[in-house]
Design a protein that fits this description.
single chain, mainly beta, Immunoglobulin-like, about 40% strand
């Protein structure tokens, strides 16, 4: 007599479970981690990559950090910044409404880069991002003798930066330079010795103009350095710039 009752109860429980909604993924927190002996003195995010669904929020936490950190967007599909890097600043949060891949970095420590992948409401991944513009794409390897020298460890000649000029423009600086060979050029903006912004560009053996935006009015030092495909680094060239 008890068997039908047990079966009926099981059916009721099964029906309740089937009707229960599927839990959505929770909002995510990314923690700033100072470099230490335990992690090879490498500043990092933990985790550096998170996945959420559209409508959810990511929070960057700086609790316990003893060196200045901040977070700022680096991909063109969003604009976000926690402000100037500082010790002990509060958390910074950003809701993501649209599926896509959103990259970010600490502007003081360029090795602290990460990405937020936003799936749609059903959990489906976003489509792949479009390819970068030609100026940011890697140089093609045409298997020429020069490539063999560059990548085979035979090239030990440093690239040279020439005619480095700086001019203040609205909310930023315009940098002009010429490099002796194709290279990846870094432009690091500093205030009182503290990095506040870094930009990387690809440059061939020709004059190049790069504009750095998103700066407040003031005085800055911009440090320019080139690294060729073999890893040879040019001497750093520092220029001062001021704008109102």
């Amino acid at each position: 007599m008890t068997r039908p009752t047990t079966l009926a109860g099981a059916l009721v429980v099964t029906g309740i479970l089937a009707a229960a909604p599927v839990a959505a993924a929770a909002d995510q927190t990314v923690q700033a981690v100072d470099g230490s002996a335990a992690n090879g003195f490498q500043n990092s995010w933990s985790p550096s990559a998170v996945t959420i669904r559209a409508g959810e929020t990511v929070t960057w936490s700086f609790t316990g950090a003893t060196v200045p950190h901040n977070v700022a967007s680096t991909s063109s599909n969003w604009s976000f910044s926690s402000g100037e890097a500082a010790v002990g600043q509060g958390p910074a949060s950003h809701p993501f409404a649209a599926p896509g891949t959103y990259t970010f970095v600490c502007q003081i420590h360029s090795e602290m880069s990460g990405a937020v992948t936003v799936n749609d409401a059903g959990g489906n991944p976003p489509p792949p991002p479009p390819p970068p513009p030609p100026s940011e794409q890697p140089f093609p390897n045409d298997a020429s003798p020069l490539e063999g020298i560059e990548y085979g460890g035979l090239d030990r000649k440093r690239p040279k930066l020439r005619r480095v000029r700086m001019k203040g423009v609205r909310n930023g600086a315009r940098v002009r330079f010429r490099v002796s060979e194709r290279a990846r050029v870094s432009l690091r903006v500093r205030v009182r010795g503290i990095p506040v912004k870094t930009k990387y560009v690809r440059a061939a053996k020709q004059r190049r103009t790069v504009t750095i935006r998103g700066l407040r009015a003031g005085r800055y030092h911009v440090v320019v350095r080139a690294v060729d495909p073999a890893g040879n680094r040019s001497r750093a060239v520092t220029r001062r710039v001021r704008f109102r």
